[in-house]
Amino acid sequence: MPSSSTQGAAGAYQYPSGHLGHLSPSQQASFDQFKQLCTDRKAYSPTGHGPKGDLPSTDDVALLRFLRARRFDLEGAFKQFKDTEEWRKENDIEGVYRWIDREEYESTRRLYPQWIGRRDKRGVPVYVFEVGNLNSKDIAAYEQATSLKGTPSSYTGKTPAKLLRLFALYENLTNFALPFLTSATDRPYADVTPISQSNNIVDISGVGLKQFWDLKTHMQDASTLATAHYPETLDRIFIIGAPSFFPTVWSWIKKWFDPIVVSKMFILSDAEVLPTLSDFMEIQDIPKKYGGQLDYTFGQMPNLAAGGMGEMVEWAEGMEKGMLPAGPIKWERAENGDMVMVNVGSVGGVEKRDVIGTVKRQWEEVLFPGRKSRRNRGRER
Known about the structure:
By secondary structure, the protein is α/β, with parallel strands linked by helices. It has 2 domains: 22-91, CATH 1.10.8.20; 101-306, CATH 3.40.525.10. Helices cover 40% and strands 14% of the residues. The strands form 3 sheets. It has a 5-stranded mixed sheet, sandwiched between helices. Strands 6-11-8-7 form a 4-stranded antiparallel sheet. The longest helix has 23 residues, at 161-183. Mean pLDDT is 88; it is low at 1-12 and 373-381.
């Protein structure tokens, strides 16, 4: 019989209240007030951005995440949003993602949860983190880094190099993976609800007490950053492979994380893993290691060939169909409004921009839900 925590995880399968397309009248009213508040205080502009100058400075998905994180408290959400906007400018977060060294980006990716190229039944991306793969040597090198490869001389940010590398991973989630999953039409509520969160499978098999303690700072940094500047990007964390001593140390481990993050963690016994994951995911999308059918090894690049997402992409010449390249990836708008997938980052200090492929969905509609492009409005007429 599943534990109460597992029942809670499975019972909340549907999209929760507070997401676009699922706002109550009072939540919608609060959201409208929040946008007006941000506009009045010059933290947000409803127009003047994008290729036609008719898009807002921040999309509704991001704005709503801040409001939801503060339980629809307008002043609290405004302060967090304003602080984040200032933080992004001070650290040139968009620039960091554009010029970070691809090799360094990949070495960081191996230290954190990784998208496996699959989705749950709602279209939410599934990330896997095998904690046992982390070793003291890699963590020490990461913690002691004093600079980033490829950093331009014009960069004036004061943030430690290890955190800049971590920022890049969150930028990949919010600016690549989530829009990509949002662009898929074969999912529930595809027309009204963007994908704004991720599910995480955290495998702690074989992790000893000393390793847990050694990873304290590493895990705290990620949790603190997400809570402060990327709020509400986490749907659930399924913790599996817990050692026998884990219930004893859980009381102090959970103090490393924000209470909201802790509330989204579900510790599964061995017998609960496959039944619980199957409630959320199709069997072919669950790694074989956890009882599913997906060939997946931690650290490999997402393979979209058999997961449905790869069929959406018109792959550029020379690209292997379904395979994403190493390094940061972002979306750009084609002249006709389509979404263009671009591999950015730098190699040997030289910034790169390699087109991976194109998705035949309108850039404005995916990144700014509810705004139909001129091309599609013409079709409707």
